[in-house]
Amino acid sequence: MTDYSVSYEQEGLVQFVIDSVYALSHAIHHLLQDTCTGSFKSCLSRGQLTGEEVLKYIRNVSFTGISGDLVRFNEKGDGLGRYDIFQFQRITDSKFDYVKVGEWTDKLFINSSKIRWKDQSLVHPRSVCSESCKFGYAKNNTEETATCCWICIKCGDSQYLFNEFTCKECPEGHKPNANVTGCVPLPVVHLDWDSLWVLLPTSFSTAGIMSTCFVLYVFIRHNTTPIIMASGRELCYVLLTGIILAYTTSFVLLARPSVTICTVKRFILGISLCLIYAAMLTKTNRIYRIFNTGIKVMVKRPGYTSPKSQIFICFSLVSVQIIGGITWLCFEKPETMYEQQNKDFLVLKCRASQIAILLSLMYNMFLIVLCTVFGFKTRKIPQNFNEAKYIAFTMYSTCIVWLAFIPIYFGANHDFKIETTSLCMCVSISASVALVCLFGPKVYIVIFQPHKNIRQAATPSLQTASRSFPRPYVPAQFSITNCDSDRNGIATSMNNSNAKVDNITNMFSDSMEEGEEGEDEFGNNDEGNENRPMEDKATSTDDINTL
Length: 547
Hints:
- There is one protein chain.
- This protein is of the alpha+beta class.
- It has five domains: 14-72, no CATH class; 83-120, no CATH class; 137-185, GPCR, family 3, nine cysteines domain (Tumor Necrosis Factor Receptor, subunit A, domain 2, Ribbon); 196-464, Up-down Bundle (Rhopdopsin 7-helix transmembrane proteins), CATH 1.20.1070.10; 471-546.
- It has 15 helices and 14 strands.
- The strands form six sheets. Strands 3-4-5 form a three-stranded antiparallel beta sheet, with no helix packed on it. A three-stranded mixed beta sheet has the order 12-14-13.
- Helix 6 (233-254) packs antiparallel against helix 7 (259-296), helix 7 runs antiparallel to helix 8 (307-331) and helix 7 (259-296) runs parallel beside helix 9.
């Protein structure tokens, strides 16, 4: 017994077999209708039908097939191009089936609402071999024959898209435009006067110039007072000139580069520092020679300690820097240049050899080291000669400033703003250290303690350095006569020692107070003073009286 409750679904290709049988049947039927006018038996007596006759009628059949579609053939005997498009879909969780989603007869028709994509989504996914490349990306075919498939390669930061397959470098001083389809000139930048990188060093330098001018005014106003005269006026004025130039250096370094500015830069940076440290080196060297040579050879004054000699020594040291700058100009012409420190802009700067800049600064570093050495050697002289201590402190501070500047400058990663600003601040701070430490105490006494601005207070003296000699050891068996004799000998020795102390004091005072005409307080000229025997000025002291 047949169970009709079981569902049955015919195979999809069976309809084509049935339609083929129908097509043949319709062709034979039409053939017989046309060739057999009588009874069917008379048609059978006609003989066998040929294949050509049947094919002719098959090509002309037209009927509705079992699936309800029209069946017919073209002039070449091919069936009509008709296709049903099916998608294999999940019907239920446990059942899958083909679902008709479109057809093609003369054209394609798709019912998109019946199509199911991944995760039963209705969104149509893109089906391309390669997406179009974005701006700034060039196509690179994966294979020589794959003309429709490629990968997108980004052009470099300095490249533009020459065509859809090629990136090219922009010329020097140019960068790609926004669409990376061409190149545009890079903007030229330099430090603007309203920038914070400029306002800080210029404000500091302006305050420094005003302070230096005030100190210079005080020195000129009180030029003949003991404190100013005892400080070595000539070298002080050289120092103040160098300090003003050091503050002015900031304005030159921050100015827009030009041939004139580049020329001035080469001189002002080295010469301003050289004036400061050459003057301080001359001062410390003079004090060192007086207190060493003067003590060893009491009867002779050390050579080249007069104002003229000191100025000559100072400017001899400065002339080395000037000659170096002139030589630099002869071998390397000052000019401007554009340097691309960033992909977005060009920096306008002065063309200069790093070796030449290093040599220029190395000479000043050499002077700083010598000043520091002499300052260290003269740090323990008597308290009255405290200018040596101030110079030593100035040099210690200067070394710290430059040691802090070096890592900042070379660690700036070629940022021209940091490099320029740090150099300006380093030079200005060095000038400020010299101004405050060397001239601050003198200006303070001149303005706020004028009662100390007298010869006794201003003239250096070694009396405070003399110490009471201990009483000599006297053995137990010692005659009164010998005691009196030794007492007289000790008093004589003490007088000679104090006389030597006064000799160094007078030696220092003479060299400090010699006039601009080259004559000292004795009326002798500089040449005669170099080897003039010092007078023994024995002075009774409290130490001797205590004996």
